[in-house]
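Batch manifest, entry 17 of 40.
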Amino acid sequence: MEGKMPMDKLIEKVDGSKYTLVVTAAKRARMITEGDDPRVISRSNKPVTVALQEIAADKVKWERTKSGIK
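Output type: structure tokens
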């Protein structure tokens, strides 16, 4: 997935919360940095950009728990 997706559309992909979007993207970016394969084809080599593209493509699942986001 290439190109920019408006932030409000990305927020809608999660639970409507900027916090959830940021935490989900950060956790996925960390996974990519630690060696996990990207789930989308991207021209970017920046883990956060790839993570946001994965969220936009519905390739990342998240779960809200009592202790945070999993």
